[in-house]
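Data card: per-record layout.
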Amino acid sequence: MKAPPYSTSKVDVVRVPEGEASDVVAVEEPLELRINGAPVAVTMRTPGHDEELALGFALSEGLRPEAARLPDDLAANTVELDAPGFDPASLARSFYTSSSCGVCGKGALEAIAVEAARVESPLQMSAGLVAALPERLRAAQPAFEATGGLHATGLFDEHGELRCLREDVGRHNAMDKVVGWAFRERLLPLERFALCVSGRLSFELVQKAAVAGCPLLVAVGAPSSLAVELALDRGVTLCGFVRGGRMNVYSEPWRVAR
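The structure for this 258-residue chain is written out next.
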């Protein structure tokens, strides 16, 4: 499996002790999101699936988009969101989302507490199937294989089949791209699916999973305290440190059948 050409770039490097060489790194560029022609946000992302990213971002921010497309002026690194009910006053200011944390520039925790119904899905997966998801995710990451510098989110059905995988320099962007894909495929809410991420579990990733109605969120890394708190509150099963057949289940453990 080969990484898309727009996701990687060659650079010169000095390897010690070998000397001069070339290396492959992940591409990072800004993406401006517009509604009714007006900029509402800028995110740093890896190019590709930009419309999905815009849709997923807008959904997680409660903007209720209907579609995403290239802008009428065809400006580079820009996506236009169709959101008829958008009220410009609902965003006090445009904010910058960094690729490293996803919530920089927001003033307080309350500003990112988007309304999401409690997830009531009866989905259950065997512990063995949950434990296999990170390996299946890793095997399908072509850009990470080339660069070692990208996060990934995968959407798996209840049988453990990978339905969608997206990579990005921002873990939150990778999640947004998957949620945006699911929106376009009319799969929301994700009541019969699991999301698996390649890194740690932050508050924002749990928020995005909850908004998408996903009952099971799996990661190879650790959750934060706020991620656990939100998962408990929204009824999301949170599985961290999923490695080597072992895992920690922090919330709603009944969904992981042992």
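Known properties of this structure: The two ends are 34 Å apart (CA to CA). The chain has a mean pLDDT of 86.

See the next section for split statistics.
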